[in-house]
Every structure is written in structure tokens, then in C-alpha cells.
Amino acid sequence: MKAERVALAPAYLLHQRAWRETSKLLELWSRDHGRVGLMARGVRRPNSPQRSLLQPFTPLLVSWSQRGELGNLGGVEAAGRSVTLKGRPLMAAFYMNELLLRLLPRQDAHPALYDAYVQTLGALGGEKPAAALRFFETRLLSAIGYGLNLAQTSAGEEVEADLDYLYDLDAGPRPALGRKGPGVPVKGSALLALEKGTLDDADDLRAAKRLLAAALEQHLDGRALKTSGVMRALARKP
Question: Who contacts 47 (Cβ-Cβ below 8 Å, separation ≥6)?
Fold first, then answer.
């Protein structure tokens, strides 16, 4: 099998771990090649020029060669300034990385989702980080083929902002009509705000978070995200 050679592909580092004495195993997310697993030989040496560049949330241009499941890292260049985040926004960024690692298979490119990731990284340091994260989760679900039906009910009727709904994750929303039943309770205004990308109301934001958490959990095979626990702990702090 002939090795595939990729030169200067836009990418971000999702995860890295030590491998042997001087090397690392990397998980990168490339705009045009999807999630890529690479062996980075010698990058743990103090004089390695790549060591300082391989950091999360730094836009990179990466070259590699690949013949099987794992490729070999070639060159790395910075493609811009790293995003500086602290506290909850930083954990939200790690949460996005963990979602991508868990839900996207390798070598499955999603250029539009990659662009949304870059946009969300920038927004996490702004005035509405929680809303930005909800929109990213929505786009991720769409990218993996499980997009939420936000504008129409399971019966094909238009969602109304002032009505209460129960969201069936397999079929979509249906009017609650004052009855309890299976499904995630959500206001129509929250569904429409997610659809339009305008999560400005605090109640709608909380409802969207609850709905998206349930939808993502359905595809995580019952395994909790490590970053979710940290984010909950941070949210409890005054």
C-alpha cells in the first residue's frame, strides 16, 4: 500500500499522550482529512522544534504520511495565534475536543463543522460562551447524521414559540398539552431560538442545554464525558 502524504493541512490538536521515551501519540482534527491519529517521534526531546507548537487550541499547518490507522508526523507550523481561555470557557473548549474524539470516526472530514469549531473557540472568550457551545453541539449532531428537528413537530406542524413540547429524540417535538410523558420538556421558543441561532433568553438557554445533553448522551454509549463532570463542578462554584 502506497503511503498517503499530506502537506500543510489546517488542523487542531485534540489530544496527545506520551509514547515510548521521546515520542507522543497525537489525535489531530484536520479540516480536509477529518480526525487523524499520528505518531510524533522525538517531540518530547527538549530541543524538538515541534514541542512548543503542539498545544490545544492553536491553529496549525500539519504535514504527515499515512499508510494504515496511524500516520507519522512530518512538519508542524503555526497558522495563527492560540486562543487564550480560562476557567469555564477553557473547560468548554476541552469539552468540544472530547466530543469530537468520541463521536467522529477517523478520516471522516467535516469542513463546515471544522469552521464552526474555529468560530466557537473564538466565541467562548466573548459575552455568550454558553450559547456558542449550544450551537456547536447542534452542528455536531447534524454532522454525524442526527440533527434535531427544531422547526416542525413530529406530526409535521410548525413549532410555536409559546407552546410547551416534549421532545422525542427519535421523532422530534410534540405538544405537551399539559400532560407528562416520555421526552425532554422544552419550550417552543427554545427550539426556534436554536434553529435561528439566537439563544438570548436565559430560560431558552437552559432548555436548549437540557435537550442537547440528552441528545448527545444517546450517542455516547452510556460513557460519561470527563469534561462534563469538571464543568458541573465549576458551575457550582460561586
Answer: none
Q: Which domains does the chain have, with CATH numbers?
A: 4-78 (2.40.50.140), 87-236 (1.20.1440.120)
Which candidate, 66, 64, 77, places its Cα nearest to that of 7?
Answer: 64
DSSP string for residues in 80-116? SPPP---HHHHHHHHHHHHHHHHH--BT---HHHHHH
DSSP 159-181: P-TTSEEEEETTTEEEE-TT---
* String of DSSP letters for 55-82: -TT--EEEEEEESSSEEEEEEEEE-SPP
Cα 31 from Cα 113, distance rounded (Å): 8
Encoded amino acid at 138, one letter? T
CA distance 120 to 85: 12
pTM over 0.85: yes
Written as nine digits, the cell of 137 is: 453541539
The one-digit pLDDT tens for each residue of the chain (238 residues) are: 567 899 999 999 999 999 999 999 999 999 999 999 999 999 999 899 898 999 999 999 999 999 888 999 999 999 999 889 998 999 999 999 999 999 999 999 999 999 999 999 999 999 999 999 999 999 999 999 999 999 999 999 999 999 999 999 999 999 998 767 789 999 999 999 999 999 999 999 999 999 999 999 999 876 777 776 555 544 555 4
Q: Collapse the DSSP code of 27 into the 3-class scheme (helix H, G, I; strand E, B; otherwise coil) and give the result.
A: strand
